[in-house]
Amino acid sequence: MSRFMDAESLRKLKALSNRKVEEQVTRFLELCKPAKATVITDSPEDIAYVRQLAIDLGEEASLKMRGHTIHYDGYYDQARDKENTRVLLPEGMKMTETINTIDREEGLEEVLGIMDGAMGGKECLVRFFSLGPTGSRFTICALQLTDSVYVAHSEDILYRNGYEEFRKLGDGEFFTFVHSAGELDERNTTVNVDDRRIYVDVVDGKVYSVNNQYAGNSLGLKKLALRLAIYKANHEDWLTEHMLIMGVKHPDKDRVSYFTGAYPSACGKTSTAMIPGMTIVGDDIAYLRTDEEGNCRAVNIEAGVFGIIRDVNPVDDPVIYEALTTPREMIFSNVLIHEDKPYWLGMGLDEDEYPTTGINHGGEWHKGKKDEEGNEIPLAHPNARYTIRLQELENLDPDWDDKEGHVIQGFFYGGRDSDTNVPISESLSWAHGVYMGATIESETTSATLGKAGVRSSSPMAVMDFMVVPFGLYLSNHMRFGSSLKNCPRVFSTNYFIKGEDGRYLNEKVDKKVWVIWAEGRVQGEYGAIETPIGYIPKYEDLRALFRRVFDKEYTVEEYTRQFSVRVDKYLEKQDRIEKLYGDEEGIPEEFWAVHRSIKKRLKELREKTGEPVLPPSHFQ
Ligand code: SPV
Ligand code: MN
Asked: Which domain holds residue 139?
């Protein structure tokens, strides 16, 4: 190892007194063959070293505003790469068919082959983090080796430092992430994108990621650790979820109730967690466990936000907009830079206020510029992002880092659904709630590579990260809720429902009313109307809330259009569910029982009324 490290780094590594860590660091340095390796502890000096190195090497450039930097990912590496992300499948292990897998031995040979010498000429940073609050029963330690200083810097903003946590680990378990951006071009973007791979070794707690830079592909602690933790949780008795955690507060009540929420990428997850007047605990990944009193408790395993910047403007996202436009340490990625200032789509400028030249994810840019395929390059990528510490946000929950986590009273599940689901409804039971989550459908967005706007199933918003058979995952959910004394209530949301004219039936900000209604429900305060698809709000309650929250008159017509049960559309959706899961092994019987009961009740209603759409008044 001394061939890669100076005495200081070696001392820091040895000070951990952890043989397993030393073994792995040695093994992967010998494989990737960097010019040198530097061990980073939790000390402010070490962390400042990483921040400065990113600038010195040109992986980030400073902007006009103090603390702001810009980083670019390669032109073809602007979103999560589903195609090249695979679970290494040991012999005999079964997996849901839609999960991308490769035989473990074959995959290891391939990826280790690509990684052989991948860090040539570069510096490898060896970093230690804690997933979740340090010193808590939720904590998982994570070791990251990377030759991307952007990755190491991003993780510093997004996660809790864990060098000290590793010192206490003894022979405890930890996850390992080995990443190399591979050879870089003059813009510091990956050259060999065709050889990019993300291989997830669930049985060994390791992920190998090479020839990529976009954070969803490269940062071990984000979606790569999510996959390992899903595997672990589903072989134990807890949940790892693609979920926000937030404190919901009614404007007139002196209390806060905590909710989690799962939404596919770019479907309102971050903006829900950031609703003005509420507190944010986390916006992306949660671990959930039961406590001794039978509550569901959740922690945010992150400490920052890697958020989509598109449409962040003073009207729709005032809190984030303020944070992004004032001095603080943060990284912009894949936005347009003109005269050292960042520009993105939907930032609230008029067309003629945007610059027509600058640098963006495609390099030098001018308005109308086309890429190699002849497509016009937008001024910023639709999946351009910002990376910021939670502590920079004025709406951060005061107890966000609590070791015990928050008691969760409700779950939200939502997707980008233009024609079926009502804006909010509450499940009739825990099993129905699991069903609601498992049957989220969403139109695809720019957060993954590929065509946007195609309806696809997105169970629990987690399918992109699924590494266990789906039946096992659902059974674990069913069991988790049943084991609780205070089971959270489950709410299905849809911020994207449209009318027949193709227009949205809601304003973006209306979600504030839905979450406050849900908060009232978990506190036993609002009545509701029972329908086959769940409990829906009463008109009078929403009218009062719209008046209180937005000083707005909410009409019966609006309510009727938004909350009509679209019987035919639901039944069509159920047909799709049957196609999708009908042949899947191990789907719990409770799931199908809920499915059949909804179907029967919807059909009975349609026969009775002869109508494909039923207004809420019909159920009262
Ligand atoms: C998401 O797309 O769900 C994200 C960003 O949170 S990524 O890191 O790409 O997964
Ligand atoms: Mn996410």
From this structure: 7-58+81-233
